[in-house]
Each structure stands twice: as structure tokens, then as C-alpha cells.
Amino acid sequence: MLRASLKSLFSRKLRLTLAIVAIVLGVSFLSGAFVLSDSLTARFEKLLRSINQNVAVQVMPTEEAADDDPQPLLTQQQVDALAQVPGVATAQGDVTALGVIPFDVRDGKPVTTQGAPQIGGGVTGDDPFALVSIADGRWPTAETEVTISRYTAEQAHAAVGDRLKVYLPEVNEAREFTLVGIVAYEGDRDSLAGETLILFQEAFAQRTFYGAEGRFSGAYLGTEPGVTQEQLRDRVAPLVPAGFEAKTGEQANEDAANEVQEGLSAVTTYFFGPFAIVALLVGIFLIFNTFNILVAQRAKELALFRAMGASWGQVTSSVLVEAVLVGVVGSTLGLLAGIGLGMAGSSALTSFIGAQLPGAGIQVGATPIILAYAVGVLVTVIAAFVPAVRASAVPPLAAMRDVARPDKPLLALSIAGTALAVPGAALTGAALTGIGGLTLPALLIGVLLFFLGVTLLSPLLTRPLAGLIGRAVGWGISGQLGVRNALRNPRRTAVTAAALMIGVTLVSTASVLAASFNKTIDETISSTIGAEIVIQTNSTQGPPDGTIGFSSEAIDEVRALPGVDQAVPFYLTVDARVDNGSPPFGGVFAIDDLAVARDMFALKAVEGDLRTLGPDEVVADQNTADSRGWSVGDAIPVELNKGGERPYRLVGVYESTPIWTDTMILPQAAVSNFNGPLAFQAYVSLDDGTDPGTVIPEVESIMSDYPLVTVGDRSSLIDQFTSFTDIALGIISVLLGVAIVIALLGILNTLLLSIYERTRELGMLRAVGMSRGGVTRMVGTESVVMAVFGCVLGIVMGIALGVAIATALIDRDFLTTIAIPWVSLIVFVLIAVVAGVLAALWPARRAARLNVLAAIAYE
């Protein structure tokens, strides 16, 4: 039986090729995520080893102390004491700060990075650890001088002798310096990972970053020959002050590499994971349909095995052996494709961020190999299991005669589909109304059951729905025959269409939610925000906690501008602890005058009063108050970044809206306990008749010294909110593309196998006068009907799920309206038509070129 199965498999290798492609796509995304993460991590590890190769011991704040405000610092005396420890050859204090941003010399705009840090440091001369060295000019020797990295010079279009404007976050202002030197990193690199680097005179940097000279955030120690890193660490440990710890250079590099790997793993998993899931899920339908058709075509062959004495278990095993071999081949090719994907991703990502990482080869660990084969083979075997069982049920007498095998009744399938869809819909509805901590699991299970139920019920819809589609595309005799072929086997058509249905359901649901969110934001901002100018801060260089943004003095200048009526700054922190738990998801704000903000944002009091807050008062939106059980008069314990926990009395509750939900507002006095004093946003209303276009340039001029701050009109706020949905929708649209590719392969495979199955029928049609063009139109119509059928089912399910979720979000004040993006949905149908036409090209050409006499005589 094994030899017969292998011989049968190799005789049909072309028919199984497209099923293998589905496995390749899914496994390649899955393994590519791990290969990319491991390869980038290896490159960062090699980078860290090379730049810290001369560091034997690193003294740094402990993990707990690193979160303190202010962070602990070493004194000059403590660094000197470390330098005197026997075995220490070199000791250097660390003077660094983040968020030090240069401005472009040409246009005066701030220089930004693709997420890499923007670093400032203090130096006294040549680096004893040889991380950086002078490439042009010299080191800074006065507080008005700076030296920058070669990459920073390129981005700022700066040369030695230029005046360079630099933003200093610790003093919340920009100053001009004379550029006296340019440095290169070890190995003559321009940068390490796309960061900017600005070096100041050490004493000036210490005063600016730490408030006093002779202060360091850590220290680096080099060892004398014959002293190991572990020995030196143990020798200096007794001198390390509280809040600090001594690590060997190898341990510090390993810890830094682990942090990098955690971040990379999260990014690659969240990016590649959905593509792998969709590809494998859609691939299950393709493989199931392929084996189902092959089993039907091999009915006489399998019956002959039974007649010769093979048991049902042997027949089932023979089909599963074929599935395992298909899975192994697909997994192997998918793993190789994933390695290529990881290589391409590593090069593209490092090029995108401007990093010059050393090469470390492609890292292929055990995890991607094991997962590739486990997932690839398992998915194939699962998809082929039902056809394998069906193969064992072929009666031995079928080998003696040609027997038409009519499609089985759909009653059992209908009952099973209903048994899944109805509870799934009920569970989804219950989850959307909220059932505590079980909401998310219930929603996921409910959606899965509903989707599986509709998938099982789809053969029932094939004849009415696909027949209706056929009326629109089935022109002429050839078209009508193509429609009848699609309706001949409802199960086969439904399973083939299900591959496309998955992707379209996903993107249709997301499209409905995105359109509803965008419309809600547009209507809410237009109707409730009485500000014509919006000042916002880009949070790429750190979380909003008062350390990024703009000063209250800048807002006072804005208020003094001609034509300005009111200006309301918003101070924001996301690090607070509220009522002994996490802060509201929307953030903890502080406002200098709540009464002005109330009128500007049309806030409506539900309970209590919305007035200018006292130093120990707070207000919150209704959703936050209800979910946390707060009432006016309650004392709410709030712990901010500094100052410890203190109670704030709730004096008012305002109505929740999509932009004012899950939030709370403190008085401006609370800002003194934020990490910094800077405002994160501000809203500016103008006098009647004032043109925002004339005021915006003046506000931009005031904010020009704050590099992360942007100024725009009300539409810029709408763009900020909708940009997130646009990005998410773009990613989901790519998922649709993956599903369409696999669905196209599924339709192509079904048509090719059907042509083998209907070879004699096609020969008879040619014999009675149908032209090659007629055969092509017939096959093309069948393909388009299957594609559009799957697309329409997906759109209907996507709209239903999107509306259900949107309705629940309206009840929770995240949305105010439901919008159906009909134009996008029509585009999906057109894409399905094009996909159907493309999928039919090869099968149609093959069918049209059949030899008439050979086809009529085909067995």
C-alpha cells in the first residue's frame, strides 16, 4: 500500500503543487518572523560586543532605581575611588541624556530619526574605550561648542564651523552652539543604529543634564592584563553605592541584547503572525478541497485496493501518507522561503532606520525549524483527514463499474452549521454587551463558532446566491454552462470560495469599524471642539509624562497674539496609579482652567460641577466613574511620578464622548508631580473673523524651539486620530492580498482538477460544436462565479460583524455612528472578479487545447 500510494502521489505531483504553495506561504511567514528576529538580535549582539569590547565592568543603576525620579547619580569622588581599585586600568564616568535634538542647518527644522534615540553626551577628550574618535575637527572645550557624529552631520547638513541649534530637554529650550568636530564610531561607522549623537563639554553637560558638575549616571571600567571581568566586578562591588550595581561587560551586553530581542520578537510576531495565520487558515480549505477532489477522482483506484483486500485503515493511511509528504515538502520550501524573507527583512529594516549593523550571518535556530514542520505537516494532515476517511468508505464493487456519485444531501451539514452559528452569534452578542473578564475570550470563541457555522452553511447558499451571481455574469450558452458547473457541486464551490471569504470577512469588518471611527471623529471634533488651532507633540522620543512638549511660557506667548481668544494647554501623564490600580486608558490630564476647557469642548456635567479646579480636586468622564464605582465627593487616591500618593476629591463627572472617554482631569498644580513641566497639547480658539491661516505661522514661530511640536488647524487633529485606523486598515488590506493569492490558487486548483474530472465531457462539448473560445468563456465564468460568491459571503459576514462590534462600541461611547464603506466593498467585488478571471487563464487554456478524440476516449 505504501509503494502504491507513493507511485500514485508522484503521478499526480502537478495536481498537488498548488496545495503545497499554500503551505509554503503560511510557513514562510511563520519561520520568517523567527529568522528575522534571531538574525537582527545576532547583529545587535555583535554590535554591542564590538563597541564595548574594551569595557570589563559597567556600573549602572539597578532596575528598580532606574525608575526613580530623580535617578541616582555617581559623584566624581566615587568614580575616582573606583579607578583606584587594584586591577582597574581605565575608569570613565558616563554623562548622557536622551531627547537632545539637533536642527537642520539649512531649513531650521528638527532632525528626527526612525525611532532611534537622540543622544547627548559629555566628553573631556579622547574616548579611552575607543567607541568614538575624531574624524574631522576636535573635541569641544567650551560650553558653547559641540562635536557630533558623522551621521548627525549628514542629517543636519552641518559642517565644522557651522552654528548648530540644539534642543536641550532638561532646560526645555533650544540653544545655538559652534560645531567644532565630527566623530566616527569604532570601525569607521557613521552611526550604530540610526541615532543622532551630540557631544558637549563635560562640565556643561553635567550642569545641564544633572544640575551640577561632577555628577555621572554610571561608569565604565577597563581591566589590567591578567584580571578577569568577574574578578574586577567582585573587587569593585563593595564600593558601588546604593541604587547601583556592577556588571561584567559580557553580562551588560547580554542584558542589552535580551532587551533588543524582546522588542524585535514582539514586532516581528505581531507583524508576521497575522499573515501566517491567515495563510495557513485559508490553506486548510485549499488542501481540503484538493484531497477531496482527488479522492473522488480516484474512486475506482481506491475501490480496487479494497477489492484486493486492503482494509479501510490501510486506505485511510495511504491518503494521510500522501498528506504528510505534501506537508513535508511544503514545510521545507516554506522554511527556505522564510529564511529568504528573514534575510530581506533584516536588510530592509536596518536600511530603513539608517543602522550600520555588523553582519552576523542568517540565524536559523531550532524553533523556526520545529515550528515549520510541525505546523506545515499538522495543517496538511488535518485538512486531508476527512477526505482520507471518505476514501476508506469507497465500496469495493465501485471498482467493477462506472458509478455516478451524486452529491450527498446537505441536511447533516445544515444541522451542524446551525448548531455552531446560533450559539456563536449568541455568545458574540453577550460578549459585546460586556461580561466582565470573560468578554474577550467569549468574543473570540463566539466569532469563531459563528464563522465556522456560516462556513458549514455556505453550501446551502451556493445555488441561490451563486445562481444569482451567475445571472449577472453567465452570458450566452458558454456562460450558462459555466454557471451550471459551479452549481453542480455546492460543497466544492463553497469550500473553494471559503478561502476568499476569510480574507474578505476580515477586511470588511475592519473597513466598517474604520469608517465608523473616522466618521465619529470627524463629526465629534467638528461639533464639539471650539478651537481653530491645535498644538500637538510627537511622542516618538518618549512617553507623555511632562518631559516632552512645550512650556507654559510658550502658551502665554500664544495667548498674547492678536486674534487669539483662549488657549488651553493639556498636561498629560500615562505613568500614574489611580485608585491603587492602572490609570484610565485615555490618560490623566491636568488643565490650568477647566471652566475654559468646558466651554471650548462643550463638556456636559452629568454630576457635580465642571469649574476651575482647586489644588486637591479632580473630575472624570462618566464611563470612568461608573466602571470604577466613583461618585461626586469621593476621595480618589492618585500616585503621580513624584510626590507619592495623595487623595483628590471628585467634584464633577462629565459626559463621555469618543474623544473624552476613560479620562480624568487634575488641576495644573498636579503638574509639579509629573516627570516634567511641559504641556503635551494645546487648543487655541480665535476671535470672530480671525483667519487661522494668519495666526498659525505666528504660533509655529513661538513653538519653533520645541522640535517635537507641530501646529495645525482642526483638520490636523482629525488626521492624527484617523491615521491610526488608516495604518491598521493598510495592514489588513495586505492580509486580504495574501488571502486573495491563496484563494486564487484554490480556484485555479479546483478548476484544473475539475478539468481532469470532466475531460470526456469537455471533449463531447467540442465534438458537438463548441469553439475553443466558448470553452474558455465557460471555465472563466465558473471561476468568476466562485470568486464573487466567496467575496459576497465575506462582505455580508464582515458587515454583520462590523455592525455588531460598532453597536457595542456605541454603547461604550467609543463611537457615535455606524458607517458602511460601500465604495470599498464594491472595490472588493471588482477585485474578486479580476481574481476569478486570472485564476481561470491557465485552466481555460488547458481545457480549450484538449484533443477532442483523446478527450472523448478518456477513462
Number of helical regions: 23
Strand coverage percent: 15-25%
What global shape is seen?
A: globular
Low-confidence stretches: none
Q: How many strands in all?
A: 25
What is the oligomeric state here? single chain
Main beta sheet, described? 11 strands, mixed
- The structural class is alpha+beta
Helix content: 55-70%
Query: What's the alpha carbon Rg, rounded to whole Å?
Result: 34 Å
Average pLDDT rating = 82
Tell me the span between the first and last alpha carbons: 23 Å
Which helices and strands occur, and which strands form pairs?
Elements (H helix, E strand, L loop, with lengths): L1 H10 L1 H39 L5 E5 L12 E2 H8 L4 E7 L1 E3 L2 E2 L15 E6 L8 E6 L7 E5 H7 L6 E6 L4 E13 L10 E6 H9 L4 E2 L1 E6 L5 H8 L7 E5 H49 L1 H9 L4 H42 L12 H27 L18 H23 L5 H35 L2 H13 L1 H39 L4 E5 L14 H8 L4 E10 L3 E2 L9 E4 L2 H7 L4 E4 L8 E5 H7 L6 E5 L5 E10 L9 E4 L13 E6 L5 H11 L6 E5 H44 L1 H9 L4 H40 L10 H27 L3 H5 L3
Parallel strand pairs: 6-11, 8-10, 18-23, 20-22
Antiparallel strand pairs: 1-13, 1-14, 2-12, 3-13, 4-6, 5-9, 7-10, 8-11, 9-10, 15-24, 15-25, 16-18, 16-24, 17-21, 19-22, 20-23, 21-22
Helix pairs in contact: 1-9, 2-7, 2-9, 2-10, 2-19, 7-10, 7-14, 7-19, 9-10, 11-12, 12-13, 12-14, 12-21, 13-21, 14-19, 14-21, 14-22, 19-21, 19-22, 21-22
A few lines on this structure:
Helix content is 55%, strand content 16%. It has 23 helices and 25 strands. The strands form four sheets. Strands 15, 16, 17, 18, 19, 20, 21, 22, 23, 24 and 25 form an eleven-stranded mixed beta sheet that branches. Strands 4, 5, 6, 7, 8, 9, 10 and 11 form an eight-stranded mixed beta sheet that branches.
